[in-house]
């Protein structure tokens, strides 16, 4: 594992260890009603009921627990051991695994164990540095194989302006400040870039829509901040595996 791979683990471990120790919430750790429960109807019709669904970047497992009530086999994964420890404490009945998608051997080993899997990934890709995104996408393709569905939610291009205006008007949300303090510098990945990373000629878009990412930050108006985002569900085109 190279230095760049370790740096993600170190950054997010620092964040989740502090989150667990202080009892604070993650900025994105909203009720499933505003997250996975919104997303699942868009990709559930395409899921193979016998296939494992892997929740990438599961954090403390809030969304994983919801998904596990609606799909037979769900595994939550995160790069942070503290996040996984918290998830297991909340939910000892389901599987949680420390996994970094830039650790290629670990990803291949998981695919060998599970076979082709579907993936749910909420607000993860924009946290990966641009130079690491091709390798990250390659690991997603490994997990998906020929039969998996990738369901992802990512911040829309307007998210940066939204957050900039929010910070200007109300100050930085403490949960966002804690992320930035770890050294993580979130960027943005629009629809075209996400599809290009996976392989525009290799993947079909099964569903897509505009959405928002509901946050735990309460505005002075009493409403929760909701960041512009988009949803996409992708599946590998038949024969694409052989062409790689």
Describe this structure in words.
- By secondary structure, this protein is of the alpha/beta class.
- It has one domain (3-239): Rossmann fold, CATH 3.40.50.150.
- 41% of the residues lie in helices and 22% in strands.
- The protein has helices at 3-22, 36-43, 62-68, 81-90, 104-114, 133-144, 159-170, 174-181, 191-198, 240-243, and strands at residues 53-56, 74-78, 95-98, 118-122, 149-155, 203-218, 224-236.
- A seven-stranded mixed sheet has the order 3-2-1-4-5-7-6, sandwiched between helices.
- The radius of gyration is 17 Å and the shape is globular.
- The two termini are 24 Å apart.
- Residues 1-5 have low confidence and may be disordered.
